[in-house]
Design a protein that fits this description.
Mean pLDDT: 88
Structural class: alpha/beta
Order of helices and strands: HEHEHEHEHEEH
Length: about 160
């Protein structure tokens, strides 16, 4: 009787490990690697809505602290109102992919090639760029942003655009 229970426990443990690692590998999909023209194309695809571009890295504590607020922001607005894109400046793609999976990020994230850092003058992260629905850059902010602040800005821009 003891051996059957032991076998069952081992089998259940193996199944649990398989499920956890199966889910983990399915969630940690490769990020699309983009250069400057592709980032600009992403930004331009947001015309007609507020576009928020978040430059971040998996190793950056303030960036990681900001992700829950960005997820909350994404959830607070419809796809017609807001395009939110994360641009990882990680040098290690696997680290960025693991962070995306660990945080279950609910917005698209791409991995920047080094030319993007230069083109956008990335010297500090997190860095947030906000574009109005016309595609004009209206905010360039370095440092983390809280949900309440970001929501207020987006609401104001959407209200102005509705006039």
């Amino acid at each position: 009787m003891k051996s059957i229970k032991s076998v069952m426990r081992v089998a259940l443990l193996c199944m649990a490990v398989a499920i956890v690692f199966g889910v983990q590998s399915a969630m940690a999909e490769p990020l699309k690697v983009v250069d400057t023209p592709e980032v600009i194309k992403l930004i331009n695809s947001g015309k007609g809505k507020v576009t928020v571009v978040n430059f971040w890295a998996s190793w950056c504590p303030p960036c990681r602290d900001e992700i829950p607020d960005l997820k909350k922001t994404r959830a607070a607005f419809s796809e017609d109102q807001l395009l939110l894109v994360g641009v990882s400046v990680d040098e290690n793609a696997k680290s960025a992919e693991e962070a995306v999976a660990d945080f279950t990020i609910n917005y698209p994230v791409v991995l920047a090639k080094p030319d993007v850092y230069e083109a956008f003058g990335i010297q500090s992260i997190p860095r947030l760029l906000i574009y109005n629905p016309k595609g004009d850059l209206i905010i360039d902010h370095v440092g983390p942003v809280a949900f309440e602040e970001l929501k207020k800005v987006i609401d104001e821009v959407l209200k102005e655009n509705a006039k």
